[in-house]
Amino acid sequence: MSNRAVVWLKIIVHALCLLPALWLLDQYHNGSLAMQADPVNYITHFTGDWALWLLLADLAITPIRRLHTSLGWMVRFRRMVGLYVFLYATLHLLTYVLLFSGYDMPAAVAGLRAGHPAELWTQLKLIWPSMVDDVEKRRFIQVGLAAYVILLALTATSPKRVMRAMGGKNWQRLHRLIYVAGIAACIHYWWLVKAGVRTPWKVTAVLIVLLALRLGYSFRKRIGVEKRTVRAEPLQER
Ligand code: HEM
Question: Residues near ligand 1 with C-beta < 6 Å?
Fold first, then answer.
């Protein structure tokens, strides 16, 4: 694929990944968000869903690319999609901290406007004990937090210079944790729904297929059936 085509594709992928966030912003501006039965719950679910869907899309890039040598260019999109996973997961976490947990946003903003930026921190300190209590009590939050910490580590080490500094093998090993983040996110979903609700089954089925493909590839490589067919950016192999 020509460089020009890749640039256009990158613009399209950026636009597609930003679309949900822009749509949410538009819903806020046109007032339809406020019409939701529970707007905070809606934003939490919306951002959580997109973080997980993009994570699965990111994981799907490698097996699709392996279908044919001509698809090697797809590897260039994995880092980009990965950064959007982190963006939506961060919005999800911020929704939890700033809206879900009773953070006094008007007081924080009023303090900021009055020239007291420390008010942002003061408000966070006020809700901190109840948030810690919530994390201790609810295991679905614990596993969600674990998924987020992994995504944070992967995002921090995603620049190419960090990859080079770490060495290809170490970088690969660390970045395989994306599968663990996917598993943790699915567990997070199963543990938060009420008993008997089966909504997370679709994302779980997609994750199982992607994991099976990854394990199958590792196995074939080990027994020597699989040869490395794609030379482009081999360090980014996961
Ligand atoms: C950073 C730590 C996290 C916290 C504190 C957190 C918190 C929450 C909360 C409070 C809910 C709503 C629960 C309810 O309805 O009672 C939720 C739902 C959800 N979260 Fe998280 N989460 C975290 C990380 C993640 C991550 C990393 C992902 C995905 C990559 C994720 C995906 C989801 C999904 C898919 C839902 C359900 C959405 C739906 O029902 O449509 N969460 N999370």
Answer: 41, 44-45, 48-49, 51-52, 55, 89, 92-93, 96, 100, 141, 144-145, 147-148, 151, 185, 188-189, 192
